[in-house]
């Protein structure tokens, strides 16, 4: 049998095609498939304790939202101090005879000292909530994420209505907090599998 014999399984077939016993060559440009088992799926990222399910490092948007919550907390502290100073000034000047004819003071005095003290406490508590949420971003779960979204929504609305000029900063920061926390990477961060605490 010669190499050109069509009955020879190991010989060269007419047209330059190899026979049964030789491996087939794939044309150039066509990806070559391997033999055996198919390729394995990608390996998931594991945490320090070997638990998968979520990013290992806080995403940049979530870090930015955390900083914005700290800024909101600081602004709330400044607002609480201003309300306390206003309450003290109103209480001290209520009995001053020279201010009885001042229209601007009378408008401010219409708010009782108790109402100003109550507003200062509410402003301070809102700031404490902002700092608490920001502090919980590192280990908090989906509940912290939802609370941050609700907090941002209420803060944005309150920034629009009663304090339009002063609250504009609050409104912008709150909207950014909502956007960064509600994005997919924020959701992945807050929904990641938590490592057990010992």
Task: Describe the protein.
The chain has 198 residues and is mostly helical. The protein has a domain at 60-190. It is built from six helices and no strands. The protein has helices at 60-93, 103-110, 113-136, 142-160, 167-182, 184-190. Helix 1 (60-93) runs antiparallel to helix 3, helix 1 packs antiparallel against helix 5 (167-182) and helix 4 (142-160) packs antiparallel against helix 5. The longest helix is centred in the middle third of the chain and has 34 residues, at 60-93. It is rod-shaped and about 125 Å long. Keywords: Membrane, Transmembrane, Transmembrane helix. This is Integral membrane protein. Residues 1-35 are annotated as: Disordered. The chain crosses the membrane at residues 67-93, 113-134, 171-190. Residues 20-35 have a biased composition (Low complexity).
